[in-house]
Automatic annotation (TrEMBL):
Name of the protein this chain belongs to: Magnesium transporter
Originating organism: Saccharothrix saharensis
InterPro entries associated with the record: CorA_cytoplasmic_dom, CorA_TM1_TM2, MgTranspt_CorA/ZnTranspt_ZntB
Annotated Gene3D superfamilies: CorA soluble domain-like (3.30.460.20), Magnesium transport protein CorA, transmembrane region (1.20.58.340)
DNA damage in keyword set: no
Keyword Transferase included in the entry's annotation: no
Record's bilayer topology term: Multi-pass membrane protein
Transmembrane segments: 267-285, 297-317
Length: 323
Protein backbone atom coordinates (compact mmCIF):
# COMPACT_ATOMS: atom_id res chain seq x y z
CA UNK A 1 0.00 0.00 0.00
CA UNK A 2 1.74 3.22 -1.12
CA UNK A 3 1.88 5.99 1.42
CA UNK A 4 2.35 9.49 0.12
CA UNK A 5 0.98 13.00 0.38
CA UNK A 6 0.92 16.08 -1.76
CA UNK A 7 0.72 19.50 -0.12
CA UNK A 8 0.01 22.57 -2.25
CA UNK A 9 -0.30 26.14 -1.02
CA UNK A 10 -0.07 25.04 2.61
CA UNK A 11 -2.87 22.46 2.44
CA UNK A 12 -3.17 18.73 1.86
CA UNK A 13 -4.15 18.24 -1.80
CA UNK A 14 -3.83 14.50 -2.47
CA UNK A 15 -2.97 11.37 -0.51
CA UNK A 16 -2.07 7.71 -1.07
CA UNK A 17 -2.03 7.66 -4.84
CA UNK A 18 -0.16 5.03 -6.91
CA UNK A 19 3.61 5.42 -6.94
CA UNK A 20 3.52 6.00 -10.68
CA UNK A 21 1.94 9.43 -10.07
CA UNK A 22 4.68 10.58 -7.71
CA UNK A 23 7.19 11.64 -10.44
CA UNK A 24 4.52 14.01 -11.76
CA UNK A 25 4.20 15.52 -8.30
CA UNK A 26 7.95 15.98 -8.04
CA UNK A 27 7.94 18.08 -11.21
CA UNK A 28 5.31 20.45 -9.80
CA UNK A 29 7.12 23.56 -8.51
CA UNK A 30 4.22 24.39 -6.16
CA UNK A 31 4.03 20.93 -4.61
CA UNK A 32 5.54 19.61 -1.36
CA UNK A 33 5.71 15.82 -1.49
CA UNK A 34 6.04 13.12 1.14
CA UNK A 35 6.72 9.57 0.00
CA UNK A 36 7.13 6.60 2.34
CA UNK A 37 8.95 3.46 1.19
CA UNK A 38 8.89 0.31 3.31
CA UNK A 39 11.50 -2.34 2.47
CA UNK A 40 12.54 -0.88 -0.91
CA UNK A 41 15.35 -2.11 -3.13
CA UNK A 42 17.80 -0.06 -5.17
CA UNK A 43 15.62 -0.52 -8.25
CA UNK A 44 12.64 0.90 -6.33
CA UNK A 45 14.66 4.06 -5.67
CA UNK A 46 15.92 4.40 -9.24
CA UNK A 47 13.17 6.83 -10.29
CA UNK A 48 13.75 9.00 -7.23
CA UNK A 49 17.51 9.00 -7.80
CA UNK A 50 16.89 10.36 -11.30
CA UNK A 51 14.19 12.86 -10.34
CA UNK A 52 15.84 14.22 -7.18
CA UNK A 53 19.50 13.67 -7.98
CA UNK A 54 20.14 11.51 -4.91
CA UNK A 55 23.76 10.61 -4.28
CA UNK A 56 24.59 6.91 -4.63
CA UNK A 57 26.26 6.72 -1.20
CA UNK A 58 23.20 8.23 0.46
CA UNK A 59 21.03 5.58 -1.20
CA UNK A 60 23.36 2.86 0.11
CA UNK A 61 23.17 4.31 3.63
CA UNK A 62 19.38 4.50 3.48
CA UNK A 63 19.11 0.83 2.52
CA UNK A 64 21.71 -0.34 5.03
CA UNK A 65 20.70 -1.63 8.46
CA UNK A 66 22.01 -0.40 11.81
CA UNK A 67 23.29 2.96 10.65
CA UNK A 68 24.28 5.46 13.32
CA UNK A 69 21.82 8.37 13.86
CA UNK A 70 23.26 11.15 11.72
CA UNK A 71 22.69 14.00 9.31
CA UNK A 72 24.72 14.06 6.09
CA UNK A 73 24.71 16.94 3.61
CA UNK A 74 24.97 16.37 -0.13
CA UNK A 75 24.77 18.84 -3.01
CA UNK A 76 21.06 18.33 -3.71
CA UNK A 77 19.71 16.89 -0.45
CA UNK A 78 20.22 15.87 3.15
CA UNK A 79 20.19 12.31 4.47
CA UNK A 80 18.88 11.76 7.98
CA UNK A 81 19.07 8.54 9.98
CA UNK A 82 17.15 8.15 13.24
CA UNK A 83 15.61 5.54 15.51
CA UNK A 84 12.28 5.44 17.29
CA UNK A 85 12.24 3.24 20.39
CA UNK A 86 9.71 1.38 22.49
CA UNK A 87 10.03 -0.31 25.87
CA UNK A 88 8.57 -3.69 26.85
CA UNK A 89 6.96 -2.95 30.22
CA UNK A 90 7.18 -6.57 31.37
CA UNK A 91 10.85 -7.29 30.66
CA UNK A 92 12.28 -3.78 30.51
CA UNK A 93 13.87 -4.50 27.12
CA UNK A 94 14.17 -1.77 24.52
CA UNK A 95 13.38 -2.28 20.84
CA UNK A 96 14.36 0.12 18.07
CA UNK A 97 12.81 1.02 14.72
CA UNK A 98 15.23 2.45 12.17
CA UNK A 99 14.27 5.18 9.71
CA UNK A 100 16.11 7.07 6.97
CA UNK A 101 14.88 10.22 5.26
CA UNK A 102 15.95 12.11 2.16
CA UNK A 103 15.33 15.82 2.65
CA UNK A 104 15.12 17.99 -0.48
CA UNK A 105 13.74 21.51 -0.92
CA UNK A 106 10.35 20.16 -2.04
CA UNK A 107 10.21 16.53 -0.92
CA UNK A 108 10.61 14.31 2.13
CA UNK A 109 11.28 10.66 1.29
CA UNK A 110 11.18 8.27 4.24
CA UNK A 111 12.74 4.82 3.92
CA UNK A 112 12.08 1.95 6.35
CA UNK A 113 13.48 -1.56 6.23
CA UNK A 114 10.43 -2.94 8.06
CA UNK A 115 7.09 -1.78 9.44
CA UNK A 116 8.13 -1.38 13.09
CA UNK A 117 8.23 2.40 12.81
CA UNK A 118 4.75 3.83 13.52
CA UNK A 119 4.27 6.09 10.52
CA UNK A 120 0.59 6.52 11.39
CA UNK A 121 1.69 8.53 14.45
CA UNK A 122 3.61 10.86 12.13
CA UNK A 123 0.65 11.49 9.85
CA UNK A 124 -1.54 12.17 12.89
CA UNK A 125 1.01 14.71 14.07
CA UNK A 126 0.90 16.41 10.69
CA UNK A 127 -2.89 16.52 10.76
CA UNK A 128 -2.90 17.97 14.27
CA UNK A 129 -0.63 20.86 13.21
CA UNK A 130 -1.85 21.34 9.64
CA UNK A 131 -1.79 25.13 10.07
CA UNK A 132 2.03 24.94 9.77
CA UNK A 133 1.96 23.11 6.41
CA UNK A 134 2.90 26.30 4.56
CA UNK A 135 6.44 25.83 5.91
CA UNK A 136 6.86 22.95 3.46
CA UNK A 137 9.43 20.24 4.05
CA UNK A 138 10.43 21.83 7.37
CA UNK A 139 6.88 21.16 8.61
CA UNK A 140 6.95 17.52 7.47
CA UNK A 141 10.37 16.88 8.95
CA UNK A 142 9.37 18.45 12.27
CA UNK A 143 6.42 16.08 12.65
CA UNK A 144 8.67 13.12 11.91
CA UNK A 145 11.37 14.16 14.39
CA UNK A 146 8.80 15.06 17.02
CA UNK A 147 7.45 11.51 16.98
CA UNK A 148 10.98 10.05 17.13
CA UNK A 149 12.06 12.22 20.05
CA UNK A 150 8.78 11.65 21.91
CA UNK A 151 9.45 7.91 21.74
CA UNK A 152 12.87 8.55 23.30
CA UNK A 153 11.33 10.62 26.07
CA UNK A 154 8.61 8.04 26.78
CA UNK A 155 11.22 5.27 26.95
CA UNK A 156 13.40 7.24 29.37
CA UNK A 157 10.42 7.93 31.60
CA UNK A 158 9.37 4.27 31.59
CA UNK A 159 12.93 3.18 32.36
CA UNK A 160 13.00 5.61 35.27
CA UNK A 161 9.89 3.97 36.70
CA UNK A 162 11.45 0.52 36.27
CA UNK A 163 14.64 1.60 38.01
CA UNK A 164 12.67 2.99 40.94
CA UNK A 165 11.07 -0.43 41.37
CA UNK A 166 14.51 -2.01 41.13
CA UNK A 167 15.78 0.24 43.91
CA UNK A 168 13.08 -1.08 46.24
CA UNK A 169 14.00 -4.68 45.44
CA UNK A 170 17.64 -4.10 46.31
CA UNK A 171 16.84 -3.66 50.01
CA UNK A 172 14.66 -6.74 50.37
CA UNK A 173 15.76 -9.78 52.37
CA UNK A 174 17.36 -11.26 49.26
CA UNK A 175 19.16 -8.49 47.33
CA UNK A 176 21.06 -11.14 45.35
CA UNK A 177 17.85 -12.65 43.98
CA UNK A 178 18.38 -13.83 40.35
CA UNK A 179 15.30 -11.88 39.21
CA UNK A 180 16.78 -8.65 40.55
CA UNK A 181 20.05 -9.35 38.79
CA UNK A 182 18.30 -10.13 35.49
CA UNK A 183 16.26 -6.94 35.67
CA UNK A 184 19.34 -4.92 36.51
CA UNK A 185 21.19 -6.36 33.50
CA UNK A 186 18.19 -5.70 31.23
CA UNK A 187 18.10 -2.08 32.42
CA UNK A 188 21.79 -1.64 31.67
CA UNK A 189 21.39 -3.06 28.15
CA UNK A 190 18.34 -0.90 27.45
CA UNK A 191 20.09 2.25 28.65
CA UNK A 192 23.16 1.51 26.53
CA UNK A 193 20.93 1.10 23.47
CA UNK A 194 18.94 4.23 24.30
CA UNK A 195 22.08 6.28 24.82
CA UNK A 196 23.40 5.14 21.44
CA UNK A 197 20.30 6.43 19.61
CA UNK A 198 19.54 9.53 21.73
CA UNK A 199 22.89 11.29 22.07
CA UNK A 200 23.59 11.71 18.32
CA UNK A 201 20.17 13.35 17.87
CA UNK A 202 21.54 16.50 19.50
CA UNK A 203 23.88 16.99 16.54
CA UNK A 204 21.11 16.09 14.09
CA UNK A 205 18.78 18.78 15.45
CA UNK A 206 21.57 21.34 15.70
CA UNK A 207 22.57 20.66 12.10
CA UNK A 208 19.03 21.01 10.76
CA UNK A 209 18.62 24.41 12.40
CA UNK A 210 21.69 25.79 10.64
CA UNK A 211 20.75 28.57 8.25
CA UNK A 212 22.81 27.22 5.34
CA UNK A 213 20.58 24.13 5.15
CA UNK A 214 17.48 26.28 4.59
CA UNK A 215 15.22 23.55 5.95
CA UNK A 216 13.81 25.38 8.96
CA UNK A 217 12.17 28.76 8.33
CA UNK A 218 11.53 31.41 10.96
CA UNK A 219 8.03 30.11 11.63
CA UNK A 220 9.25 26.57 12.38
CA UNK A 221 12.35 27.59 14.38
CA UNK A 222 10.59 27.66 17.80
CA UNK A 223 9.14 24.20 17.16
CA UNK A 224 12.55 22.77 16.27
CA UNK A 225 14.04 24.42 19.34
CA UNK A 226 11.40 22.69 21.44
CA UNK A 227 12.30 19.30 19.93
CA UNK A 228 15.97 20.07 20.50
CA UNK A 229 15.22 20.84 24.15
CA UNK A 230 13.45 17.49 24.48
CA UNK A 231 16.48 15.76 22.98
CA UNK A 232 18.78 17.43 25.52
CA UNK A 233 16.52 16.47 28.41
CA UNK A 234 16.24 12.87 27.20
CA UNK A 235 20.02 12.55 26.77
CA UNK A 236 20.76 14.04 30.21
CA UNK A 237 18.11 11.83 31.78
CA UNK A 238 19.60 8.79 30.08
CA UNK A 239 23.05 9.59 31.46
CA UNK A 240 21.69 10.02 34.99
CA UNK A 241 19.82 6.71 34.76
CA UNK A 242 22.97 4.91 33.61
CA UNK A 243 24.76 6.24 36.69
CA UNK A 244 21.82 5.18 38.86
CA UNK A 245 21.81 1.62 37.52
CA UNK A 246 25.57 1.40 38.05
CA UNK A 247 25.08 2.61 41.63
CA UNK A 248 22.34 0.03 42.22
CA UNK A 249 24.66 -2.72 41.00
CA UNK A 250 27.42 -1.49 43.31
CA UNK A 251 24.97 -1.48 46.21
CA UNK A 252 23.93 -5.05 45.36
CA UNK A 253 27.55 -6.19 45.45
CA UNK A 254 28.22 -4.35 48.71
CA UNK A 255 25.13 -5.83 50.34
CA UNK A 256 26.16 -9.31 49.22
CA UNK A 257 29.63 -8.76 50.71
CA UNK A 258 28.17 -7.46 53.96
CA UNK A 259 25.76 -10.40 54.21
CA UNK A 260 28.63 -12.82 53.62
CA UNK A 261 30.72 -11.14 56.32
CA UNK A 262 27.78 -11.29 58.74
CA UNK A 263 27.25 -14.98 58.05
CA UNK A 264 30.94 -15.73 58.51
CA UNK A 265 30.98 -13.74 61.74
CA UNK A 266 28.02 -15.69 63.14
CA UNK A 267 29.43 -19.03 62.06
CA UNK A 268 32.75 -18.19 63.67
CA UNK A 269 31.02 -17.13 66.91
CA UNK A 270 29.01 -20.33 67.16
CA UNK A 271 32.11 -22.38 66.34
CA UNK A 272 33.93 -20.70 69.25
CA UNK A 273 31.01 -21.45 71.59
CA UNK A 274 30.90 -25.08 70.53
CA UNK A 275 34.67 -25.39 70.93
CA UNK A 276 34.44 -24.70 74.69
CA UNK A 277 32.37 -27.77 75.69
CA UNK A 278 34.33 -29.78 73.17
CA UNK A 279 37.55 -28.82 74.95
CA UNK A 280 36.12 -29.48 78.42
CA UNK A 281 34.63 -32.87 77.51
CA UNK A 282 37.79 -33.78 75.67
CA UNK A 283 39.85 -32.95 78.71
CA UNK A 284 37.67 -34.96 81.08
CA UNK A 285 37.57 -37.81 78.62
CA UNK A 286 41.31 -38.42 78.81
CA UNK A 287 42.46 -41.94 79.73
CA UNK A 288 44.14 -40.78 82.93
CA UNK A 289 42.77 -40.18 86.41
CA UNK A 290 41.59 -36.61 87.03
CA UNK A 291 40.04 -34.80 89.98
CA UNK A 292 36.46 -36.01 90.44
CA UNK A 293 36.69 -38.66 87.76
CA UNK A 294 35.01 -41.17 90.05
CA UNK A 295 32.73 -38.67 91.79
CA UNK A 296 29.37 -37.07 90.97
CA UNK A 297 30.71 -33.63 91.77
CA UNK A 298 33.34 -34.05 89.03
CA UNK A 299 30.60 -34.53 86.44
CA UNK A 300 28.71 -31.49 87.69
CA UNK A 301 31.89 -29.42 87.79
CA UNK A 302 32.61 -30.14 84.14
CA UNK A 303 28.99 -29.50 83.19
CA UNK A 304 28.86 -26.16 85.02
CA UNK A 305 32.19 -25.15 83.48
CA UNK A 306 30.87 -25.85 80.00
CA UNK A 307 27.67 -23.89 80.63
CA UNK A 308 29.41 -20.90 82.24
CA UNK A 309 32.08 -20.61 79.57
CA UNK A 310 29.59 -21.04 76.72
CA UNK A 311 27.23 -18.47 78.26
CA UNK A 312 30.11 -16.08 78.79
CA UNK A 313 31.23 -16.35 75.19
CA UNK A 314 27.66 -15.99 73.96
CA UNK A 315 27.19 -12.83 76.05
CA UNK A 316 30.50 -11.41 74.81
CA UNK A 317 29.71 -12.11 71.11
CA UNK A 318 26.15 -10.81 71.48
CA UNK A 319 27.35 -7.57 73.06
CA UNK A 320 29.74 -7.03 70.14
CA UNK A 321 27.02 -7.98 67.63
CA UNK A 322 28.98 -10.95 66.33
CA UNK A 323 25.98 -13.28 66.52
Amino acid sequence: MPRNRLYRDGALAEEDVPDADVPRWLRDDRAIVWLDLCGPSESDLAVLVEELGLHETSVEDALENHERPKLHQYDTHLLLNAYAVSLDEASGRLTTAELSAFVTPRALITVRNDDRFDMAAVTRRWDESSSLAASGVGFLLHGLLDVVVDSHFDAVQALDDHIEGLEELVFTERPDDPDVQRRSLAMRKSLVTLRRVVLPMRDVLSGLMRRDHAVVDSRMTPYYQDVHDHVLRASEWTESLRDMVATIRDIQLNLQGNRLNLIMKKVTGWAAIIAVPTAVTGFYGQNVPYPGSDQVWGFWTSTVAMLLLSAGLYGLFKRRDWI
